[in-house]
Amino acid sequence: MSVALRKFRETDSLPLEAGGVDAGRRNGRGAVSNRSGRYEPIAYEAVDDGWESLAELEGLATEVQEVPARRIITRNESPDIGFDRSINPYRGCEHGCIYCFARPTHAFLGLSPGLDFETRLFAKTNAAEALQRELAEPGYRVETIAIGTNTDPYQPIERRYRIMRRILEVLSETNHPVGIVTKSALVLRDLDILSSMAKRGLVRVALSVTTLDRKLARAMEPRASTPDRRIETLERLVEAGVPTAVMVAPVIPGLTDMEMERILERASSVGVKQAGYVLLRLPLEIGDLFTEWLKSNCPDRANRVLALMRSTRGGKLYDAKWGERMVGDGPYAWMIGRRFELAAERLGFNQEEISLRKDLFRPPARPGQQLQLL
Fold first, then answer.
1. Does the first or last residue of the chain, that is N or C, have fewer Cβ atoms within 10 Å of its Cβ?
2. Domain limits at 329?
């Protein structure tokens, strides 16, 4: 079997469908194409050679490479987010959310932010050990660690690798506060640890709900838990006494923003008391990937969605300006923000702030360090 490869230099005009992959091969995946990352001098597009060779290619399988992490806590100084450190147990995410703002990070590995991002994954198998070392460092100062802010720690491969569970075990043993964001019901596997940490005021969990439309979710977030399962997961967490929040994120103008109030109502009905939202962000390669997805899955609404997105970003698909990148700007972005505020107030969200305890932290012993008797 032979497959012809057509080359495009970085200065060439790259067609929208460049790198497009047959629907059968990418079944259960979010991205439509596997276009090259921004650092590659040449982009390749698979082209049938006339012998229907593309049809003979096998479906895209998930490949996982185990990689050691020298350090596991990532620091940031962004004024737009409420944490200064985070942990990412995995690089790439099998959930395949087409809008995921972590997709461009795969370009640093010479891989595509498209289908490579959701099929060629990296597992930091020594993450728990690296975390122990960092928490034991003499100069370490405790603040809440965020997990799930980049790639989902409870994506499907976590069932096999259990990296997130081992991280939680370290955090629980040291009484270290943690905030978790996920789209997966797999978080309930660790309910024993989470409920124990909740009793000590050490954990909060947020589930992101983009849409309640099962069909739309299947196309947009193909391997994440269904919307109903996420609402059920919130209910189970609330019943177990774990502080929970619902994130209406991302809000996609013209596609999902009309569901904001219903999502908040569903979350409120199961006892959730905290809520937030984030406007869709399309940095770097995500703009092209999302546009491809829209025209493939929602052709009748694509132009309107893109026009509304530009109206919230100063005429562009994305503006990285601090203070605006999470909520956008302009009349439509303002309306989304006011709708969220009114619905949240009506349903009693965000009446009390969830503060996690830092005073209980006890660093793990360093190698060769004598343990304290008291």
1. C
2. 4-347
- Least trusted range by pLDDT, from 241-250, 306-315, 317-326: 317-326
- Note the pLDDT tens digit of each residue in 172-200: 999 999 999 999 999 999 999 999 999 99
Task: Quote the CA–CA distance of 338 and 131 in Å, as a whole number.
Answer: 40
- What does the alpha-carbon distance between residue 193 and residue 261 come to, in Å, rounded to a whole number? 32
With DSSP H G I counted as helix, E B as strand and the rest as coil, what are the percentages for the chain, rounded to 5?
A: 35, 15, 50
3-state secondary structure (DSSP) of residue 42: strand
pLDDT band at 5 (very low <50, low <70, confident <90, very high): very low
Terminus-to-terminus CA distance in the chain, angstroms? 70
CATH number of 263's domain: 3.80.30.30
Residue keyed to tokens 């728990």: 128
Q: What is the largest CA-CA distance in the chain?
A: 76
The alpha carbon dihedral of 105, 107, 110, 112 has a sign of positive
46-64: buried (b, 16+ CB within 10 Å) or exposed (e) per residue?
Answer: beeeeeeebeeeeebebeb
Least confident of 13-17, 57-61, 147-151: 13-17
The tokens describing 242, both together, are 């774990």
In a domain, 258, yes or no: yes
Q: How much is the pTM?
A: 0.88
- The letter for the amino acid at 205 is V
Whether the CB-CB separation of 163 and 90 falls below 8 Å is answered with yes
Whether 327 contacts 279, CB under 8 Å: yes
Question: Is 261 inside any structural domain?
Answer: yes
Closest by CA position to 281, among listed 322, 234, 328? 328
> Is 125 in contact with 163 (CB distance < 8 Å)?
yes
Q: Could you tell me if residue 374 is inside a domain?
A: no
Question: Nearest to residue 316, comparing CAs of 293, 284, 292?
Answer: 284
What is the number of alpha carbons within 13 Å of residue 112 lying toward its C-beta?
Answer: 22
Question: Is residue 219 one of the residues assigned to a domain?
Answer: yes
Residue 323: CB atoms within 10 Å: 9
Q: How many domains does the chain have?
A: 1
